[in-house]
Amino acid sequence: MSRVPSPAARPTPSAGQVFESVWTPDWPLDPARALAPHRRGTGDPTMRITDDGLWRTTTTAEGSATVRIAVSAGTVRISAWGPGAEQAGAAVPEWLGAADHPEGFDPSGHPVVAELHRTTRWLRLGRTGRTWDALVPAVLEQKVTTAEAYQVWRELLRLAGEPAPGPAPEGMRVPPSAQRVLEVTDWEWHRCGLDGARRRALRAVASVASRLEPEAAGDSAALQRRLCSIPGIGVWTAAEVVQRALGCPDSVSVGDYHLKNIVGWSLAGRRTTDDAGMLALLEPWRGQRQRVVRLILAGGARRPRRGPRFAPTDYRGI
């Protein structure tokens, strides 16, 4: 993962600091890999990796927060700033996988899975406890290329995200609140490059955002049902959200353009033609299927790319 130098002009980390904690995990933690599912490209304004640690912004029930995570000799030092600093800082161990329990996972159903489990000891399924932060980018990623979704995410944060509190690296932004999303005009959405279908879905989830957080929506299954009841939100988006917000070990992103083939190539040595075929391959690990997917994404085989890539659509010119 790319790194950027620490800006020389940035205030020292002690300036305005409101939360600090130290934590020692009992596994070989790598914060960058642990939080990779939350990073939308190297230019994501909500996450930066610098010489002095990994920086991430988040929303909380108390307000926005900036968190810095630094690891030295196995010890994790957590610093946080902003109205939501205490909530966000206290949640960092769970972000990184402290609430995950991989010891009950049996990888013996396939030699590839067993080997990946043996060699990927750093993998833990983290949970942020924040539906909104996972839901907004997931909606933007519906039925478009990854590059297009990342571009819209950056444009939305520049337009509607507030500056990161505290001594964050220059250009970092906090995901916009649900109220701020509802205030964005159609013309502004058009300038961001967001099409009408995703625009309507984003407004729909913003209108009920307070009822989608885990404390109101319940467990993974209940949250997925609630999400899928919202117009424009399907099973793929719901799975993407519970994987990040709740660390769900079983939810699979059915409907993903590439995932079925990645799983098929790793477990069967061939492309899988549909989601049913992918789920059949993952069936031996029901209850832990997302963990198997994460292992495969971390080190599984890939089919060589020989054909042309799908070209993104620029909705700003339409």
Q: Could you explain how this protein is built, in words?
A:
This is DNA-3-methyladenine glycosylase family protein. Keywords: DNA damage, DNA repair. The chain has helices spanning 31-34, 85-95, 111-119, 131-140, 146-160, 178-183, 186-192, 196-207, 214-217, 220-228, 235-245, 259-268, 275-282, 289-299, and strands spanning 19-23, 47-50, 53-60, 63-72, 75-81, 162-163, 173-174. The longest helix has 15 residues, at 146-160. By secondary structure, it is an alpha+beta fold. β3 and β4 (63-72) form a beta hairpin. Among the domains are: 19-100; 131-245, Hypothetical protein, domain 2 (Endonuclease III, domain 1). The chain contains 14 helices and 7 strands. The chain is globular, with a radius of gyration of 19 Å. A 5-stranded antiparallel beta sheet has the order 1-5-4-3-2, covered by helices on one side. A two-stranded antiparallel sheet has the order 6-7.
Q: Largest beta sheet: what is the strand line-up?
A: 1-5-4-3-2
Mean pLDDT: 90
Distance between the termini: 34 Å
Structural class call reads: alpha+beta
CATH architecture descriptor text of the domain at 131-245 = Orthogonal Bundle
Element-by-element helix/strand order? EHEEEEHHHHEEHHHHHHHHH
Under the CATH scheme, which class of the domain at 131-245? Mainly Alpha
Radius of gyration, CA atoms, in whole angstroms: 19 Å
Helix content: 25-40%
InterPro entries: Alkylbase_DNA_Glycosylase/TA (IPR051912), DNA_glycosylase (IPR011257)
Protein name: DNA-3-methyladenine glycosylase family protein
Keywords: DNA damage, DNA repair
